[in-house]
Write a structure and sequence with these properties.
The structure is a single chain. This protein is an alpha+beta fold. The chain has two domains: about 35 residues; about 160 residues, Umud Fragment, subunit A, CATH 2.10.109.10. It is built from two helices and twelve strands. The strands form two sheets. Strands 1, 2, 3, 4, 9, 10, 11 and 12 form an eight-stranded antiparallel sheet that branches. It is globular, with a radius of gyration of 22 Å. About 30% of the residues are buried.
Length: about 200
């Protein structure tokens, strides 16, 4: 009788350990391949996203489609982002037209403002595409930062996307280090879950 009870207890412990291991494995797999949490590290996306705010990033969609203009995405920037370096020399009144050939290991979060083939310039912190100003109700514009006025157009290269923070006067972005190849995009931010007062879709 005692041996039977001991076997039952041992079986229950093994079952519990197995359940916990499977649950942990599933959680890690989901984070690695499906949805990843991300903490906002800087004020570059204010007022849309505050420092310390947390979002969920969809890692699947980017494998089957391109990001759209206005999407907020997490990505690895060009290695030039670590040194404020563009991939090519260019005039001071023009955004960086080409990235460095290798990527950084740091994760960034910005908004897609330029698509492949777009003729893009920046005036008073606002994006102009093909000669027309974008409607950008989500930004905090600025006209007096070093990279807020870049009136000489660039053409966004094929397979790359031009990223900018919503806080135009306080964002280190594609204006400095160039467009981002699609293969370096990790995923689209779609939901914010912390703090509780900011819970909602993006």
């Amino acid at each position: 009788m005692a041996q039977s009870k001991q076997r039952s207890t041992t079986g229950s412990v093994i079952e519990l350990v197995t359940i916990v291991a499977v649950a942990l494995g599933l959680a890690l797999a989901i984070q690695a391949f499906v949805v990843k949490p991300f903490r906002i590290p800087s004020e570059s996306m204010e007022p849309t996203l505050d420092v310390g705010q947390r979002v969920l990033v969809d890692r699947i969609t980017m494998h089957f489609s391109d990001p759209g203009r206005g999407d907020v995405v997490v990505f690895k920037p060009p290695a030039g982002a670590d040194r404020d370096q563009c991939g090519v020399s260019h005039p001071a009144d023009q955004a960086c037209p080409r990235p460095t050939p290798t990527r950084s290991q740091t994760n960034f979060i910005k908004r897609v403002v330029g698509l492949p083939g777009d003729h893009l310039k920046v005036i008073a912190g606002r994006v102009w595409i093909d000669g027309k100003a974008l409607k950008e109700p989500y930004i905090r514009p600025s006209s007096d930062c070093e990279i807020c006025n870049l009136p000489r157009e660039i053409t966004v290269p094929p397979g790359t996307f031009f990223m900018m923070g919503d806080n135009r006067g306080e964002s280190d972005d594609s204006r400095t280090w160039g467009p981002v190849p699609k293969k370096w995009i990790i995923g689209k931010a779609f939901f914010t879950y912390w703090p509780p007062k900011r819970i909602g879709t993006l």
